[in-house]
From TrEMBL:
Molecular function GO labels: [isocitrate dehydrogenase (NADP+)] kinase activity; hydrolase activity
UniProt-annotated location(s): Cytoplasm
Catalyzed chemical reaction(s): L-seryl-[isocitrate dehydrogenase] + ATP = O-phospho-L-seryl-[isocitrate dehydrogenase] + ADP + H(+)
EC numbers on record: 2.7.11.5, 3.1.3.-
Function: Bifunctional enzyme which can phosphorylate or dephosphorylate isocitrate dehydrogenase (IDH) on a specific serine residue. This is a regulatory mechanism which enables bacteria to bypass the Krebs cycle via the glyoxylate shunt in response to the source of carbon. When bacteria are grown on glucose, IDH is fully active and unphosphorylated, but when grown on acetate or ethanol, the activity of IDH declines drastically concomitant with its phosphorylation.
Pfam families recorded: AceK_kinase, AceK_regulatory
Family: Belongs to the AceK family.
Main location: cytoplasm
Transmembrane segments: none
Residues at which ATP binds: 322-328, 343
Superkingdom of this protein's organism: Bacteria
Protein name: Isocitrate dehydrogenase kinase/phosphatase
Recorded name of the encoding gene: aceK
């Protein structure tokens, strides 16, 4: 039971120290995000990527600092439970009128779970559900969004003023031209539609920065219609700004905020208000993924886990071994009704997989910190995850016992009489259709005359997307390592995304070679390799037998991506990256771009 009186000064001091620890974290997080504007203005692209990568570490560093302070100054871990009851209540009181209460509650959970032993760490001591509402929090510094009320005739003037209001330091190649193009694109979306009295543009006050782009994000209101839109602002070859495209609709915004892209940097005083606005643009996107896209990954994990527990309460299906070819490094399971997969590192690997658990974890961290260019799935990493025992298929339990026994614990962990399966370490990813299964479905349909035309088109699309995915990763200095179809998946939007990271390498660490010519007839007839192979040597022409056994796949691949079998393609990109060049991989189709002189080429 919670205390009726708050009579422990120590509890208040601990709560305030914890609040101060969070405030320090968010102050530093926000300052780094705000500096993205200057890096964009000065075209400091490598600095932008470095900051995106380093900011991911901020949260754990601040949690560690808070834990160390609480133990040193207050011996927090030695305090009785009566004091911890009061700490939480004081902390709630300290969040009244706070501008990031949901993030502070998650910070409290992170610190508390590091101090309290699991046996004492129960729902009374953490925020299982939010205690403070995030509704209608008003920022002090600047409004969450700005509203503009143009007429049809003044729309270009309004767009130009909107761009000016972001106060980018530098000059546009031709801001008026860009404003007129955007206005024409908007009016094209409302062709032969009467502009109502409430016609307006609403745009979030902060620009969204990522890599070489800055994005205006907002929506157009007209009568009962709400149209999401985004405007990418880029530098041209002479360093001048230009609006590169006008993106409209939920699908375009979903691509921009994809789980397979790096996190945005945006200066937000009230992050929950940004999330609420973005959710109005993308109602199908979980709030957890929006927090992730904004760089607030810990909050994303918190919300994801709440959604997961809620789903368990309202479903009855059972966890099973995931469909598809079983991996040599990862054991994968899923819940059919839940759109994610759970991945556990096995305890041992076959001889051809020369790796360790720690090396695999480092590969996943590499992807987390790297620019994922829309082609590598983000992962949520959890420790000691509890599942209801009766929701697991017996075959899955045996699979974990066989291949990852160190990661499995079965028992009544909470002492509530309910048996649990506890997985010690797990990665969670968005579920996709494995590309090998998708291709097999296409092969099956090709054999049916009434479906052959559609199957041929979907097969070609999948093969083209597969090659595009590899080339996008190459542009970002990533070699996927294992390029088999089974390691790629198809998203709901038809994009091919890579999701198996245990053999991933930086492109610049690899040595791409042509297979040497046979020295003699004996070499030519031999089934063995007659040439030396280093640990990081890659022979692109050897990809062909593993990938192109099917004639239809081979035809599509060779028509669009034959260069992937040529060592020269890989060598040229390695040299380009080593020379410091950074190619653009934009989160929208080239056909959507406006035509510009001196525009950045699209990779």
């Amino acid at each position: 039971m919670f205390p009726q009186r708050l009579d422990s000064p120590l509890a208040y001091d601990i709560a305030r120290a914890m609040r101060d620890g969070f405030d320090r974290h968010y102050r530093l997080f926000r300052a780094e995000s705000a500096r993205a504007k200057h890096r964009f203005e000065t075209a400091d692209w490598h600095g932008q990527q470095r900051a995106q990568r380093e900011r991911i570490e901020f949260y754990d560093l601040r949690v560690g600092e808070a834990v160390a302070r609480l133990e040193k100054e207050f011996k927090a871990g030695e305090q009785p439970m009566e004091v911890w009851h009061q700490i939480k209540l004081h902390f709630i009181g300290l969040l009244v009128d706070h501008h990031q209460p949901e993030l502070a509650e998650t910070f409290f959970n992170s610190v508390t779970t590091k101090i309290l032993h699991r046996a004492y760490f129960q729902n009374d001591f953490i925020f299982v559900r939010p205690a403070i509402s995030t509704e209608y929090i008003e920022p002090r510094d600047a409004p969450t969004y700005r509203a503009y009320y143009p007429e049809r005739e003044t729309l270009a003037d309004t767009v130009e003023r909107m761009l000016e209001d972001y106060a980018l330091q530098g000059r546009y190649a031709d801001r008026r031209r860009d404003a007129e193009r955007v206005a024409a694109a908007i009016l094209g979306r409302f062709h032969q539609v009467k502009l109502r009295a409430n016609f307006q543009l609403q745009v979030l006050s902060g620009l969204f920065y990522r890599n070489k782009g800055a994005y205006v994000v907002g929506k157009i209101n007209n009568g009962f219609i709400e149209m999401p839109f985004a405007l990418p602002i880029l530098h041209d070859a002479e360093g001048r700004f230009h609006v590169d495209a006008a993106l409209f609709g939920e699908e375009d915004l979903q691509m921009l905020f994809s789980f397979a892209r790096a996190y945005f940097m945006v200066d937000m005083e009230v992050p929950s208000a940004y999330v609420q606005f973005l959710r109005s643009l993308m109602p199908r996107k979980p709030r957890a993924e929006i927090y992730n896209a904004l760089g607030l990954a810990k909050q994303g994990k918190t919300l994801f886990y709440r959604d997961f527990l809620y789903h368990l309460n309202y479903s009855t299906d059972r966890f099973r071994i995931a469909p598809g070819i079983k991996g040599m490094v990862m054991l994968v399971f899923d819940l059919p009704s839940f759109p994610y997969v759970f991945k556990v590192i096995k305890d041992f690997f076959p001889p051809q997989k020369d790796t360790t658990r720690e090396q695999v974890k480092r590969k996943y961290l590499l992807v987390k910190q790297h620019d994922r260019v829309g082609r590598m799935a983000d992962t949520l990493e959890y420790s000691d995850v509890g599942f209801p025992f009766d929701r697991f298929e017996p075959e899955l339990i045996e699979e974990i016992r066989k291949f990852a026994p160190s990661q499995l614990e079965i028992g009544d962990r909470d002492g509530n009489g309910e048996m649990e399966i506890v997985v010690k370490h797990v990665y969670i990813e968005r579920r996709m259709i494995p590309l090998n299964l998708f291709l097999q479905e296409s092969f099956d349909l090709l054999a049916q005359p009434e479906h052959a035309r559609r199957a041929s088109k979907q097969l070609e699309h999948a093969v083209i997307e597969y090659g595009n995915a590899i080339k996008d990763m190459v542009a970002a200095n990533i070699f996927p390592g294992d390029m088999l179809w089974k390691n790629f998946g198809l998203t709901r939007g038809g994009k091919v995304v890579f999701y198996d990271y245990d053999e991933i390498e930086y492109l610049t660490d690899c040595n791409f070679r042509k297979v040497p010519a046979p020295r003699n007839e004996e070499d030519e007839m031999s089934g063995e390799v007659w040439y030396s192979v280093g640990p990081k040597d890659v022979f692109p022409e050897t990809f062909e037998p593993f990938l192109l056994g099917n004639p239809a796949v081979r035809e599509a691949f060779m028509a669009h991506h034959a260069d992937l079998l040529d060592a020269a393609f890989w060598q040229s990109h390695k040299q380009r990256i080593q020379a410091g060049q950074m190619l653009d991989v934009f989160p929208y189709d080239e056909s959507l771009r406006f035509k510009h002189d001196n525009a950045t080429p699209y990779f």
